[in-house]
């Protein structure tokens, strides 16, 4: 009995951002494993067993998937966005690394997807037009000092920064601390966007500045984008400016 | 006459990584503009005019698209990967910013796509499982000193680094200079991957270390991935290890 695991990126939400590869695989799997919010996006069908689980049990979920694959199942582990970006691909491989030898022989395939920073960038214009960093603000798995060190390094390099996992009910404070730090590192006029649930019915985009931003706008479904020194707005007649980080960078800037 | 511009991400290459949104829009546009290699992926059809252009004329291409949209055309500007990541979204908005006032009133929509670092990550396992940076090595539009500063900052923050545009026929040297610098900043044992043309028939992945890597492996179709200090390999019986940057980071590491 040889099973398989597909680690599937569902994209930011809407069906039009789900890759045909992921759609096809979702039709083939015998078992689907993931956080409730993500497996809820998948329509039930005969032959498919759906195993929803709570948030923050990524390793349990991964081990369950690996056990099912060892018993011959074709298992889909679903993530929102891209499974390789702060999502299930790393959790599955951490479980493999620390699990029984036979798990290393399993066929495990990662299917990429559109990630939240890309959906946010598309709505805003071209904020990621220059070099950029992606940082998860969750300190569940790494020390807060490392996050501070990375925010400082990102400013030293004048990168645009995409902040993932900015806040949750259990972690309301980190985004305030991050903004307090960023305000010492970047000009108050730096463009900042809170892009919530992009592509979903409750999408909400707030465009502001580092000086004026209310970090309380961020929740688990929000991607926070912080501009570089070259990031700026292009005014438009409809009042919704584009956000642009140009590709060029003048020497001495 | 009101036209529109869609800035379309074609993804890394194969049709199964093209979003349904992009596919649907490709059926609607009257004009397609892009680098020859990208427009060549689109099948001709009645009612569609294809305007291929050479590489490195992104602003001319953008202005052409804007003029066509002003004359009422529905224009698709195509990029490989994600148009927001080192691709055409920023070029179109730079042209808007410096063009006639009426261009600012045009309807311009960016359609995200899977970017090269995501396709590479999917093949390798989970190299982007921690915080990461994306840096374009092209110094056509920014000074080399800025690229050096960003490589240093990325190492200060212990980010995984995805290097875009590592080399071209006109710029064979930068990737050698980048590796020379990186070798002073990160351990020789750091995992490095050269992921070329992922998803296309000529896909080739070379997994090596910073100490042993041959930078000459990089070309225009290559995404180079440099690990963080926590990035490591997981051996597998088939001899093709997974690359993992775990989500966790021990204090003091």
Name the helicity range of chain A.
Answer: 25-40%
Beta content of chain A comes to 15-25%
Whole-number radius of gyration of chain A? 20 Å
Span between N and C termini of chain A? 61 Å
* Helix-strand category of chain A: alpha/beta
Low-confidence parts of chain A: none
Q: Write the H/E string of chain A, N to C.
A: EHEHEHEHEHEEHEHEEEEE
Strand order of the largest sheet of chain A: 3-2-4-1-5
Oligomeric state of shown chains: homodimer
Helical run tally of chain A: 7
List the helices and strands and how they pair.
2 copies of one chain form a homodimer.
Chain A: E1 4-9, H1 20-28, E2 31-35, H2 36-39, E3 49-53, H3 58-70, E4 74-79, H4 88-97, E5 107-111, H5 116-124, E6 125-126, E7 132-136, H6 144-156, E8 160-164, H7 174-185, E9 191-196, E10 204-209, E11 222-226, E12 232-234, E13 242-244
Parallel strand pairs in A: 1-4, 1-5, 2-3, 2-4, 6-13, 7-8
Antiparallel strand pairs in A: 8-11, 9-10, 9-11, 12-13
Helix pairs in contact in A: 3-4, 6-7
Report on the architecture of this protein.
The structure is a homodimer of 253-residue chains. The first copy, chain A, has helices at 20-28, 36-39, 58-70, 88-97, 116-124, 144-156, 174-185; strands at residues 4-9, 31-35, 49-53, 74-79, 107-111, 125-126, 132-136, 160-164, 191-196, 204-209, 222-226, 232-234, 242-244. The model of chain A has no long low-confidence stretch (mean pLDDT 96). In chain A, the strands form three sheets. In chain A, strands 3-2-4-1-5 form a five-stranded parallel beta sheet, with helices on both faces. In chain A, strands 7-8-11-9-10 form a five-stranded mixed beta sheet, sandwiched between helices. Chain A is globular. The first copy, chain A, is 28% helix and 25% strand. With 253 residues, chain A is of the alpha/beta class. At the A-B interface, α1, α4, β5, α5 and β6 of A face α1, α4, β5, α5 and β6 of B.
């Amino acid at each position: 009995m040889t099973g398989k695991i597909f680690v599937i990126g569902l994209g930011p939400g809407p069906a039009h951002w789900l890759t045909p590869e992921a759609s096809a695989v979702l039709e083939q799997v015998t078992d689907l494993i993931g956080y409730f919010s993500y497996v809820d996006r998948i329509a039930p069908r005969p032959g498919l067993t759906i195993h929803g689980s709570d948030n923050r049990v990524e390793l349990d979920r991964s081990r369950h998937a690996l056990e099912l694959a060892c018993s011959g199942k074709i298992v889909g582990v679903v993530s929102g966005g891209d499974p390789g970006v702060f999502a299930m691909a790393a959790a599955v491989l951490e479980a493999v690394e620390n699990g029984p030898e036979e798990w290393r022989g399993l066929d495990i395939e990662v299917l990429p997807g559109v990630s939240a920073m890309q959906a946010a960038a598309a709505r805003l214009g071209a904020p990621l037009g220059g070099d950029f960093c992606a940082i998860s603000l969750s300190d569940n798995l790494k020390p807060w000092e490392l996050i501070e060190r990375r925010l400082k390094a990102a400013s030293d390099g004048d990168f645009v920064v995409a902040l993932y996992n900015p806040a949750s009910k259990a972690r309301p404070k980190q985004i305030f601390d991050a903004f307090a730090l960023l305000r010492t590192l970047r000009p108050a006029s730096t463009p900042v966007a809170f892009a919530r649930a992009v592509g979903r019915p409750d999408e909400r985009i707030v465009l502001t500045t580092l000086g004026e931003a209310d970090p309380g706008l961020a929740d688990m479904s929000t991607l926070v984008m912080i501009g570089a020194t070259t990031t700026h707005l292009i005014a438009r007649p409809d009042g919704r400016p584009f956000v642009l980080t140009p590709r060029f960078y003048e020497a001495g800037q």
